[in-house]
Amino acid sequence: MSSEAKGGRSAQLKHTGLRPGWTTGACATAATTAAYTALLTGEFPDPVTITLPKGQTPSFALAAEELTGASAMAGIVKDAGDDPDVTHGALVRVTVRQLPAGAGVVFRAGPGVGTVTRPGLPLPVGEPAVNPVPRQMMRDHVARVARRYGGTGDVELTVSVDHGEEIARSTWNPRLGILGGLSILGTTGIVVPYSCSAWIDSIRRGVDVARAAGRTHVAGCTGSTSEKTVVAEYGLPEDALLDMGDFAGAVLKYVRRHPVGRLTICGGFAKLSKLAAGHLDLHSARSQVDKGFLAGLARRGGADDALAAEVADANTGLAALQLCGAAGVPLGDLVATTARDEALAVLRGAPVAVDVICIDRAGTIVGRSTVA
């Protein structure tokens, strides 16, 4: 197959013709690397190069730097590429301060970075809203700098975003109980540009390529973590992977007209709960997790009135899932099965078997349907 005909996530990204950008997590990692290097050597690397989870090595120019005897600060301006991201152009700063040996890496929320105040998020209450993958990226780069320049790696990282509290009002953070500013996000370090028409066209091309290659099993994935899950589960080749993103309806409607033998849909539990509730566009601006709907599913799974009320009042879909898990109610499987049935309804009898896999943020399977 020629390089132009190849399918999969990378081909879809290329086909959109849009310029990717960098996540706040990547920017914070670059700022951390530059600041810690300066703290140990007296000089800021500019540009500073980091390694992303998939091996890319982008370089970032410094927009701010400050070195004192006890700490160093570096700032990176976030470039979201062609994505209409509210944080595009924001200045992400990290101040690094040495800690006593054995303290490890400690995260602090500076101005413009939120603090978690409600359960149900991937961080404990009271923690700075620096998500798990960016934390690991920052820890890894602290360790690399320490090895190179003879540091201990025991540091305090205070992450801040200029005007972050104001920007956060345009996000879901206040509703989720993340107060005081933005979250530092990202699982790959790369912002995938968002264009409805380009992305839907790339999905269609992905289906066409898979069919031309004789694939009888394809997977619609909401992101890179779900893609890894279906590859681990089924060993699917790259050209059988459709980067569905939020466009579940686009996948289902095109596969209805251009059938494949089997379609697996894999994504985060909360996102696929929207599909289960009948939404075909899973973007947060156009559909939300309906906790009342989840409470109804929980009742079907054996939840009593008290548990159903807790689910309906949960802060997030993850919190609802955790409540049901503790009570032995298989909410993940119920969401997956209901989402599968919604997908079958959209397919309108097309000769396509469907199964659905729900995962958490770490990629652990938390619910799945049978194939129907």
From TrEMBL:
Q: Which InterPro entries match?
A: CbiD, CbiD_sf
GO BP annotations of the record are:
anaerobic cobalamin biosynthetic process; methylation
The answer, when asked if Coiled coil is one of the entry's keywords, is: no
Q: Name one Pfam family in it.
A: CbiD
Task: List UniProt keywords, sorted A-Z.
Answer: Cobalamin biosynthesis, Methyltransferase, S-adenosyl-L-methionine, Transferase
Q: Name the Gene Ontology molecular function terms of this record.
A: cobalt-precorrin-5B C1-methyltransferase activity
Q: Does the keyword Acyltransferase apply?
A: no
Tell me what reaction this enzyme catalyses.
Co-precorrin-5B + S-adenosyl-L-methionine = Co-precorrin-6A + S-adenosyl-L-homocysteine
* Gene3D superfamilies, per database record: CbiD-like (3.30.2110.10)
Name the enzyme group at the top EC level: transferase
Stated family: Belongs to the CbiD family.
Q: Which PANTHER family match?
A: COBALT-PRECORRIN-5B C(1)-METHYLTRANSFERASE (PTHR35863:SF1)
Entries under NCBIfam families matching the protein: cbiD (TIGR00312), PRK00075.1-1 (NF000849)
What is this protein identified as?
Cobalt-precorrin-5B C(1)-methyltransferase
Question: Taxonomic classification, please?
Answer: Bacteria, Bacillati, Actinomycetota, Actinomycetes, Kitasatosporales
